Amino acid sequence: MTSKHLIYILMASIGFSACNPDKTDHEDNTLSDEWYPGGKLGTTFNITASAYQQPAPAVENANLVSAFKAGERLFDKNFVTTASGESPLGGLGPLWIRSSCVACHPGYGHGKRQTSYNSNVEGNGYLLVVTDETDTYLSSLTGMPQTRAVAPFKAPIDESKIVIEWKNYTDEWNNTFPDGETYGLIYPEVTIPESAFYVPLEVTKNGATTTVPYANVRVKLESTIGIYGSGLLDAIPDDSIKAQYAKEESKGVILNSAFFANGDWVKQYSNTLQGNGEKHPYRFTYGLSRGPLQDGPGANAIWNIFNVTRKDRRYHYITTTYAKVASKDPDVQKDFYTYFPDFNITGDAETDIYNYLTSKNLPTEITEEQYVNFMVWHRGLAVPAARDIDDADVQKGKKLFTQIGCTYCHRPKWTTGDDNFTDPNLLFSNGDSRLPRYPGQTIYPYTDMVQHRLFMVNNIRTGWCRTTPLWGRGLSERCTGASDRLHDCRARNVTEAIMWHGNTESDARKTVEKYRALTKEERDAIEKFINAI
């Protein structure tokens, strides 16, 4: 037995009892690739409660462990308004969404379902999605609306007035399988009263800004997802993702024509503000809003969640509408110079407040070294090894998972390229040695990296949602304390997640019909397989 697998056994024994079913007694030369969902460079054999938090072997190979740990501290610690010896992470505000990354990603995993909206509750990974009736974001709010503010400013939305109500849903099968087993389905409805909005309700379309009647405002929730393995997804070549789109299109799969049509991209990600506009496929977030990881959700969040400025973003994540409202607010004017004496430039509070909030040349609040360390950590998080792959029920579940069509969207396997990654921010050069890399790895994320539609009640914005990777999700209860799934945590377990795919118009309808025709033993085998990968 190799030392690595001995460590795997020892770590597992620490976290749970000797009757733990996760098998680890294998020699390296008997392990198939599927035991390594992140490949040999991206898989950790720690399957304890800290499984999502481990550095990939690629981090160790590149001698980046110290940088990884330093980056991890940025993720784990609270940002504060003013740095000190105890809390070096200063710069929080003037508006913010959370004060730490881990608050949204408990155990570095998926956010937990909430019954009320409180940004101070650890595990609340919810971000508000506020639009008009056409699914267009309100331009008077940021895309991820802030609900917290540093004095003397006021939050764009008063989160104490946000109400989350969970409603029961009965599907066409009366939430019952043919063999009599039942299941529950719930979904959230979110209400924000008009009085909770500090800014006017506006939307900008085709360069024109208009007021949105309150009755036309729509509010939904999107939760954070697990962030482990993001570097591996970034290492999938652009042309491989394009080939997947083309393959699905050729088979008659309806794709989001805003991204891909007639064998080619309609739209790709680019950054012309910090970068040179170079284009790459969208690959991250439910709504496919981000491209390469170096300008992905984490790179963006380290700036806009806290409003902490950095070298390439010396401005705040704030709308001009908010700046206008705040600059004219007598309460803000009265105390602005007390809290921000360095920005008493003209002596006119309204002018100085507006200029401060909209400035493009603010002092940097996070160093380049800190940001590089953060990206080492973000790109370097490993994927937990698979468990019980050789178990007879798991193998049965794997076979059924394929037979009923789950792999049409949850594509099992990809191969990474040379991983000479790109950075639309231009802070990192291609293949920069300061970041870990994953060349030539066979990985098993179980996603096609494409958006599909499920037509759920109170659906995700636009109705299109990227297929969520399934790797490591079976450890969610152990690592985060919850097993909530789907974009708004409406599914409390695997069965509910599958049955939310069953709408008559859903792209997965036929698969769900086949799933319903299985015996309970067969359905349980599929769940066991999903929890093993």
Beta-strand portion reads 5-15%
| Rounded average pLDDT | 93
- What general form does the structure show? globular
End-to-end separation in angstroms reads: 23 Å
Task: Figure out the total of helices.
Answer: 16
Q: What does this protein structure show overall?
A:
The chain has helices at residues 3-15, 39-42, 57-61, 65-76, 230-234, 238-250, 297-304, 320-327, 330-339, 349-358, 368-380, 392-403, 476-480, 494-499, 509-516, 520-532, and strands spanning 43-44, 95-96, 126-131, 148-149, 163-168, 186-191, 202-205, 208-211, 218-223, 260-261, 264-265, 383-384, 414-415, 442-443, 451-453, 464-466. It is an alpha+beta fold. It has a two-stranded parallel ribbon with strand order 1-12. The chain has a two-stranded antiparallel ribbon with strand order 2-4. Helix 4 (65-76) packs across helix 11 and helix 8 runs antiparallel to helix 10 (349-358). It starts with a helix and ends with a helix.
Produce a short descriptive summary.
The chain is α+β, with helices and mostly antiparallel strands and 533 residues long. The chain has helices at residues 3-15, 39-42, 57-61, 65-76, 230-234, 238-250, 297-304, 320-327, 330-339, 349-358, 368-380, 392-403, 476-480, 494-499, 509-516, 520-532; strands spanning 43-44, 95-96, 126-131, 148-149, 163-168, 186-191, 202-205, 208-211, 218-223, 260-261, 264-265, 383-384, 414-415, 442-443, 451-453, 464-466.
